[in-house]
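Attaching the record inline, Q. Sequence:
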Amino acid sequence: MTATTHTRGTPVSGSVPRPGSRPEAESADRSGARRSATGPGSGADPARPAASRPAPGTASPADDAPDAPGGRLDGGPDEDDGACGGCGEGSGDGFAHGPGHDPDHGTGHRPGVDPAVFRSAFRRHAAGVAVITAAGRHGPAGFTATSLTSVAAEPPLLSFGISLGSSSWPAVAEAEFIGVHILGDHQEELASVFARSGADRFAPPTRWRHGPHGVPLLDGVSAWLVGRVLERVAAGDHRIVVAHVVAADPHGPGGPLLYHQGGFRRLPR
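Structure, as predicted:
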């Protein structure tokens, strides 16, 4: 059993955008992406019927896809959110994809660059590693991600990508609040657990607690943030989630954990 102590973080200042409004810095709509249901409690995305959604934390058919050499984790190490034949996002290793990994989505079906070239390019892009969590109907859900982005400081907004095939998508699709955990270089194993297909990610030795607004918070991370979901923007077979940060603690241990060329990396000290 895990502790259920409510954790108080540092409130984050800044005006709160109206639910459903588009942050000025958010440009997915301008790129031709169709907006999906937005705002807290908007429920399931119409592109993914409720009956077909796997329970949070369980393996979906995409989770069983073979691991492929890849670039990012976003449901790719961003999680098991649907296998993307080699970009490392949704490749069955628990990482979520970023937008644009499929050239036929959101581009008017115009031919894009060869997917192998695209994946090879992103393998060279070093990214910080985060774990995204949400409280789902059937318990906590979470996945490893490298698509985390700081969108704006005033008001404080962040975004991340998640595949519609991710086992965590049903929880994220309905959550009013989400947790974001920036992992330290001592947490490679934790990153691997939350990227592993079919793993019970919140079972021991994972240490976690209920944080602000009931969001599952992981212990020992370099920093955590809790955000109120404002938008879930359609981007191919993914959604870009935009959240307003309402609490945060940036004072955890460790240097940065990176993902590069299909593996975890640490900076020399």
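Helices lie at 115-123, 169-174, 188-193. The mean pLDDT is 73.

More tomorrow.
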